[in-house]
Specification:
single chain; mainly beta; disordered N terminus; about 200 residues; 2 helices; six-stranded antiparallel sheet; two-stranded antiparallel sheet; 8 strands; about 20% strand
């Protein structure tokens, strides 16, 4: 469950919500270089720019990464993550020539089960403010959930996965460890999101 202080801070930081549509979603909570994402920032992500999540040939291969069958990547008895095929969504593209993603960037990766509520959804959000200093600096991790009414909720968020969660109980720092291998692209793996493409 999210900390009440973070929720209160996010409520103060967020202005009016933007409706979902075909145009890029503009984050509402950016203040002085820090963006605290809330549930409203993920609504309508299926309407954002998207692409199949494929491996970037410019980055080192990683078991369970984009384009890899995660069935071979197990976390003890906990199961697997990033089952294929995946779609990657992003709220806005970085300016041409960027060497990092701007604060407020939201990247969502979703599996493809026919039952939308059964899909695994992970997100990385460029929070800024030197958040996550011991991992992928400035990035915050999220696990999301599609709800039957078409909305999206947040299961957890933070600098690492919470302890005791089934999939992450063996290694809550898994997100950081994997994404740091993509440091050459500001810790982002997907081929469609290589900074050199923009």
């Amino acid at each position: 469950m999210r900390a009440s202080t973070k929720t209160a801070l996010a409520t103060l930081l967020c202005g009016a919500s933007f409706g979902a549509g075909c145009s890029p979603k503009v984050p509402s909570g950016e203040v002085e270089g820090v963006f605290v994402a809330t549930t409203s920032d993920f609504q309508g992500f299926h309407d954002w720019q998207s692409a199949p999540a494929m491996p970037a040939t410019t980055l080192p291969p990683v078991d369970g990464g984009d384009g890899i069958d995660a069935g071979a990547v197990t976390l003890g008895d906990a199961g697997t993550i990033h089952n294929m095929p995946l779609t990657v969504y992003w709220n806005s593209s970085p300016p041409r020539g960027s060497t990092t993603f701007p604060v407020g960037t939201i990247i969502v990766k979703e599996t493809s089960e026919a039952d939308i509520t059964a899909r695994k959804i992970f997100s990385m959000v460029k929070r800024g403010g030197d958040f996550n200093p011991n991992g992928a600096v400035n990035w915050e991790w999220f696990e999301l959930q599609n709800l039957a009414d078409g909305s999206v909720s947040i299961n957890w968020d933070g600098a690492q996965a919470p302890g005791g969660m089934d999939v992450y109980s063996s290694n809550p720092n898994l997100c950081n460890e994997c994404h740091l291998k993509a440091a050459a692209n500001d810790d982002v793996w997907s081929s469609a999101l290589q900074l050199s493409n923009f």
